[in-house]
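Hey team,

Filing this mostly as a record. A colleague (T.K.) asked me to run one chain through the structure pipeline before their review meeting, and I want the input and output archived in the tracker in case anyone asks later how it was produced. No errors, nothing strange. Just documentation.

Input sequence:
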Amino acid sequence: MDDRNILRTLAGELAEISALPVQNQRRENWRAANDLNAAAPVNLLVYQEPWQEFSVQEALTCRCADDFLRSVELSMRKILFKWNHFQGDMIVDGCWKVPALINFDPLCGLPISEEILEQENHGDVVSHNYKTLFKDPDDLEKIKLVDIRYDAEQTERNRELLSGIFGDILPVKIQKIGPIWFAPWDIISMWYNPMELLMDLVLKPELMHGIISRYTDAMLHQLDQLEAQGLLCGYSSDHLTGSGGLAYSSALDETYDSLPCDRQWGSSAAQIFSQVSPEMHQEFALQYERKWLDRFGLTYYGCCEPLHDKLQLLKSVKNLRKISCSPWNNLEKTIEQTNGEYVLSLKLNPATVATPDFNLEPFRKEFTRTARMLKGIPCEIIFKDISTCHGDVNRITQWVNATKEILEKNR
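Output structure:
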């Protein structure tokens, strides 16, 4: 089978799935949860899967000869594989999105300097030894003000190519940039040895303020250009709120074309600040993150860091709608302090599927208790950071099915 027929066959499968009534129902469910409807179902999403362990699967074996078409084929196969094995409450859109070729750069022109310890069969999951790139204020100039460029011609050529292959089956659209993950200290901690970074919050506070201030300004410089050039787009099934679930909300515009920031979701996090006091979190993180967050209609905060002792601080963010609740959070304290006023983005521990001896019973027992605590609370369940399942996709399938079953019994 040639490249054209391969993609047309896959596009046909996607088009058939996208037309199922469940797609619109799930959009309404995500929208209801993001609108703080306490009666909304708890939605579940899986991402950051260990694809390297599934590469031997026949369903993920690519056959296209052309490199670009092969990349499209792999993306299609991943969506179908996910749908067939651990769909949760994912949504498949009735179109194919071609990424707009935009040089948006979260590193602001400063490459990371690091040593990497390769780990066999773990894909992108490797150990990093980051080197400190900032010694004095002069080093702040390493963080560049990047000028945005959009290669509209090549993007349109890519769209036309795919449209000519399968556009009559699955319409092809250009996808500009959706909600942007703004986590400045995640980036800075790759420019700075983490131990030195935390020490220098105390030993070199002026330098650390200089770094975060310069980085925030550099990112706002890019955001201003993206907004002015109409390069921010509306939501689709692959747009996330921060490190959480899907972005549908009646409070924001879901049109697919260009949008201003105040019709978008914003997000931020400071994961390396897990053990930093609320006062220092405000001083070195949130006061700068607000400059970004204040631009957006709704915002999401957090990722893997525990936030239960910083909720009063986060409540001061005027447009905050959703808060990450990682496995290291005190869920009871979080529920008590948020009182249904925010969506809880509950991250479940991926170690459940990573242990050598897979056993769901401890998870069932613990999550049943969790599900009872979530009654009447706007919430989403996120399975992410799955570095391994020992090559057994059925572990994730069973994990998802058990979670859905427990939620249905206790909602």
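Quick notes for T.K.: The mean pLDDT is 94. The beta strands are 43-46, 96-99, 114-117, 127-130, 172-175, 265-268, 298-301, 320-325, 343-347, 379-383.
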